[in-house]
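User: What would this chain look like folded?
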Amino acid sequence: MTRSRAVSEWITRELPELVDEHGVPGAQVAVLVDGEVVDAAAGLCNVATGVPVTTDAVFQIGSITKVWTATLVQQLVNEGLLELDRPLREYLPEFHLADETAAATVTARQLLCHTAGFEGDLFTDTGGNDDAVEKYVATLAGAAQVFPPGERFSYCNSGYVVLGRLVEVLRGKPFATVLRERLITPLRLEHVATNIAEAILERPAVGHVRVAPDERLRPASVWSLPPSNAPAGSTPAMCARSLLGFVRMHLSDSGFDLMRQPQVVLPDLGMPRTHCGLSWMLLDYPGGTVIGHDGATIGQSAFLRVVPEAGIAVALLANGGDVVPVYHTVFSHLLAELAGVELPALPVPPADPQPVDADRVSGTYRTTMAELELSVDAEGRAWLRTEARTEEAKRVMPETTVVEVVRLHDDALVTVQPQAGIHQVIGLLGADSSGRVRFLHSGGRSVARAPT
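Assistant: Here's the prediction, encoded as structure tokens.
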């Protein structure tokens, strides 16, 4: 039996059981092995309508879109139209931030690596027309600078919308048009949608959410985040097979090798040390280096891992529920069997955690989108309260959550209870003049301590 057939039989057998076990409405898995893509589907596109997931259904890929946007940027570099380390303003004079000194020095490389330092989670809705990205970038004139450009990594959705605008200006066409002309059509990818108008002509999966932790999953009230954030991942959707068709190009065309070279070290969150490349996340797993990216939108999740040396890639797309255990089971098996790579164990809280240092960590940390309050009692037990601060934030996160956290190691806390199937790790970064933590690193973002 060939490896591809063995993989096909395994995912076809295991995926339905896994989505049922973990309460995932629907999912697709696709695997690139020995030059062939095999795929499987299970569950429902929408629990309200009962439409089944097939291998040609389209799921939102969320922030995996950033690798597509970065690929369009790398094409500009390869054609001599862009230099990554020149100030962005040389190509995009319209780019402004609240800190004009920072805006004048930000480069495309910093945007690609999430080190530009300005507010990253701004989901301003500027419509769905061809000028939506242009209008969005204009709103960044008031975006706060969290840290100086180049100082550290902090995941930045808004930076990728700026990159989308850069692509528009240098190509002279709307982002979605460039995406289709430069990638989707040349790669002959089917079942790919750049927006909701295209998605409804396919078999679209709908995200599923819980308004309260003890509620049953239900279809989300909206299909996507604002279209103006498309270059960061708000709207593109596709089947898992087409996502791997895009990956196959990256493995066969050396013009994109630079994208998977280490650019910046990521914070230590108790997992194998990782780096960020030019959008790709570089993961130093036992057995080899893996590149990948994840994505999350309203009730939808996407996972992509690639082992370039082995020519192996795995994609999982899902539309709600506790999907992380499904990801871990599928990817642990396939990466080990096909590439000899061991997927690290998911983080868990220690059985007997040490007390949390109240003087060092207690306080309020704030972004435009959310406020995080970390409190510690006299016994060293800690709780993290997260509150959405804007109406846009309430569309993508619960209005208020409170979770207990314990010490994982010197520079990280971990949630006692799993969130969406995983214990979340919160990094403790930097120190002010009093020795207090400067930033909480939560969900990839560096959230600054609020002034007192």
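The mean pLDDT is 94. If you want, I can go into more detail on any region.
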